[in-house]
Amino acid sequence: MKNTTAIFQRYRLGPLIGLILIGVFLSILSDRFLTTSNLLNVARQVSINALLGVGMTFVILTGGIDLSVGSILALSGALAAGSLAFGVNPVLAVLVACLVGLVAGTINGTIIAVGRVAPFIATLATMTLFRGGTLIYTEGRPVRAVAEGFNSLGGGYIGPIPTPVIIMALVVLAAWFVLSQMTLGRRIFAIGGNEEAAILSGIKTNRYKILVYSVSGLLAGLAGAILTSRLLSAQPTAGTGYELDAIAAVVIGGTSLNGGVGGVLGTLVGALIIGVIDNGLNLLNVSSFYQQAVKGLIILIAVLIDRRNAGG
Fold it and tell me: What residues contact 208, with CB distance under 8 A and at least 6 apart?
């Protein structure tokens, strides 16, 4: 029994086992749950949260948090849609969204690392700042984003697989490689595990903090482009509350809010758990009010497990 528990803790199998159990439970309650079209729909829906969650994982591994990703997503999508209106090539429009996200994330990282502002306060302020910028730019109205080639980013397929799912898989694999196989990843874990020790060992912590927030912003920008492409327009209120879903995916996936422990594969599982629950409750015609309550309960349980593990 102790060996089994050790294996579960070492390989962090708890979230994956939970996902499987939830899937089995929902497949019993709904005949439509295990259909190919429904599972692909779940994967497409999950891709946005997973992209935000990957960036959030980098941030939380250093002991930080980023509350501004939803606002960065909206601002990036709005500027990408706006650039299309000026006849910009769709590929360049996607790059515009990514660049806007990268700059916004770098601003966050600089305020936190150089300005010595607590991540919660800094990103809470920029969350409002970026959302305000989006409303000013769009004048509170949706911005149309219809252009040949651009709409395939969020609504197209590569073979039978939705394009956003392919992008999500590539991003997760790249992030996993960085965190598990590169010196950069080891230093990010070191900063979250013990920042003072990391400084004493010669790690330029400010540089890495700015980097992880830049990665988070970049992925939020990419997510903004995908969402704008899928909706055929940029909504000024897009991404509202997405930061909480991203944090929830990270925590449910086993990454510690204290930093230094976790990984993006767990975050992907966490995002799938949230997506599967949302989908299952929709198939069962459960009220959205109850869906929020269920999601909150799951997050609470994950945080309590995290605190228990941290205390142990």
Answer: 62, 184, 187, 188, 191
Tell me 234's DSSP state: E
Top-confidence residue, 72 or 9: 72
Distance CA 105, CA 100 (A): 9
Instruction: Report the DSSP beta bridge partners of residue 39.
Output: none
- pTM (2 decimals)? 0.92
Measured between alpha carbons, how far is 267 from 283 in angstroms, rounded to an integer? 24
Give the contacts of 252 (CB within 8 A, at least 6 positions apart): 15, 269, 270, 273, 274, 298, 299, 302
Q: Pick from 44, 41, 39: which is nearest to 226 by CA?
A: 44
pLDDT-derived band at 300, boundaries 50, 70, 90: confident
Tokens describing residue 140: 């509170």
Q: Which two tokens stand for residue 181?
A: 């196989």
d(CA 44, CA 152): 13
Q: Which pair of structure tokens corresponds to residue 17?
A: 């086992």
Contact, 267 vs 249, CB < 8 A?
Answer: yes
258 with 192: CB under 8 angstroms? yes
User: Residue 17: exposed, middle, or buried by beta-carbon count in 10 A (0-12, 13-18, 19+)?
Assistant: exposed
Cβ proximity of 263 and 179 under 8 Å = yes
Task: Please list, in sequence order, all residues whose beta carbon lies within 8 angstroms of the beta carbon of residue 200, skipping any fewer than 6 positions away.
Answer: none
- Determine the Cα–Cα distance for residues 75 and 111; give it in Å rounded to an integer: 19
